[in-house]
Amino acid sequence: MKKQLLFILFFALSLKTLNAYEFVYKVTLPSINGMVCGGTSVGSMFKDHVESVLLLPVVWGEFFVAETKNLVFSTAGGFSLYFEDDALASVNISLGMGIRFNRDKDDLRLTGAFFTIYPVYEFPFIPLAGTARYPWKFAFEPLAITLGFLPIAPMTISAYWRTIFIYSSDFKTKVFPLGLGDVCFTIGWYFTNKPDSRKLIKKRSVETENPAEEQSSEKEEQ
Predict the structure, then answer these.
(1) Which residues sit opposite 190 in a β-bridge?
(2) Which of 70, 74, 116, 120 could be joined to 141 by an S-S link, Cβ 3.0–4.6 Å?
């Protein structure tokens, strides 16, 4: 238990270090089907029969790792709380990797269309209710998009379709998908140490550097 708590503390303290890169902290809204965030997350169950379940992502983020000419690589994941019959059953962890294609070099690296793979998804990092029925899960987001609102505000909105798979020897095929997936939205805060290297930031800086020219052009139009 002490090792798990130290890991969570290290992760939280690392957020300050991650600010040196492009990083997005995300708040997950209730998902459409309730599997990603809500009351139908049956893949995290401990007991065979429960009255109610609830999964709440509490720390979720994505940060830039590397880029090539046409690709941007990022890591994503975080922690969530899983409640079973109104009691905290586990603290879960998810880890994944995102890839963006054909990125406009002037755009923010963590915006645009992308897909994400989670080799570790909602793993019961701190189990409190015994042994989980399906501890090993993975997820895939074949379609996702993030829109940034800098420099108006350091915020983003993301929408994605996530398909969740559980692994168990109980199934003939060993791997079983939880339906067709779930659709979810997040609101994020965008952190970057290179605001002047992005198109949206440059546009605002040019406008603020030449206010006189803008005013004169407005007068001429009038």
Answers:
(1) 24
(2) 116
